[in-house]
Write a structure and sequence with these properties.
Layout: E1 2-8, E2 13-20, H1 22-36, H2 52-59, H3 65-83, E3 88-99, E4 105-113, E5 126-127, H4 137-149, E6 152-155, E7 165-174, E8 177-190, H5 200-204, E9 212-218, E10 231-245, H6 251-257, H7 263-297, H8 304-322, H9 330-336, H10 341-368, H11 377-389, H12 393-399, H13 402-420, E11 423-424
Parallel strand pairs: 5-11
Antiparallel strand pairs: 1-2, 2-4, 3-4, 6-10, 7-8, 7-10, 9-10
Helix pairs in contact: 1-3, 4-7, 6-7, 7-10, 8-10, 10-13, 11-12
Length: about 425
Amino acid sequence: MNIQNIEKKEKNMATFEVKVPADVFDNAVNEVYKKNKSQLYVAGFRKGKAPRAVIEGMYGKEVFYPDAIEALAQDAFEAGRADCGFECVGAPSLIDQKVTEDKELIYTFEVGMYPEVQLGQYKGLEVPQNHEAFDESKVDEEMHNVQKRNARLLDVEREAQLGDHVTIDFAGFIDGEQFDGGTAEDYDLELGSNTFVPGFEEQIVGMKAGDERDVVVTFPENYVEALAGKEATFKVTVKSVKEPELPALDDELAKDISDYETIAEYRDHVREDLEKQFNEEQESDYATRLMKAAVDNMTVEIPEPMVLAKLDEQLRNYISTMGVSPELTREQVLASMGLDEKTFQEIMRPQAMFEISTDLLLDAIVKAENIELDEGELDEMYQKMADEYKMEVDQIKQYVDEKIIVLDMKRRKAAQLIRDTAVDKEPEAKEEAAE
């Protein structure tokens, strides 16, 4: 296979052709014939015994071409990528394929090119830090949440209020027809949790056990395509209303839910955790704003295939963290959240662009600063990973590509360089409000 007609285009896109020799293409066609001949019946021959020439004579000489073209496409692209003279990014697009009179197969691929980065200022950045003090009321909020998590649910005969738990049966209808996914029995719902479509929970308020009601809602425009923007009627039956009874914040509660003997000790523990989290968030926020400043100072044009690959990665990661059944398609998982893939991409595109820009920035800094790992650093990282995952170092090396680890470590050093050289700028004073 050889590459030809390389053409670089705008927005870091390029096309190139890959020519597959006639003998290679013919071998691929023959493999498709051997794989499929048992399924073809030709009069005068036992099933699966008809020669290729006879089958091609009956069904056309190109009968096996599509499968052969598909079978060779990946190898053709890999050959083109190796010889095109630039780094391809994202998934390639096969925009054309043709078979010449000499029976050579020619593919035309469109690809994204790794973009050139022009660094701006990334050292000595002046970005104000957030010097806000820890809010003690957060401790009170968390202690109240502890009470809610450990509350008992008691049946009540009164009308349901926000904060109550109700057990309901419901069935959803659109234009009088029941729709998939809109029916459930014995569903436990906390009123005010915003679990359901906006407007649903508020209409349950005021109902008592045994009450029935038609709840009318309109699905959001960014919901699944089949329901987006449509009005639905849910026939709801309330089977029970339960009121949460909060436990007292006392020593007994502390002993029940923790290793602490007193509620005061437990509260101190909560405060310590929240303060640590607050400080980490402050530092993370500052690091992010520094990174954004450095990204804004650089110049780069990101090709669309790179963005699409990042969006696909984000979606796969998001689905994996949800712990859903592997049998569900990505469309079904998104539908359960009231989204489709297009809407998900629209929502996540700004974050995808920032993540790509950050990686490009850090890689450019690694190159500009000639950042390398110190002796023993890689071994220390392997040992840290082995300890974290309770595995042997040799096992970690089998599962994780060393290039990925080294790249990540160098990027971390580049990010630390930005942080270490930053200047904490005093935030601008807010103007006094006019009387």
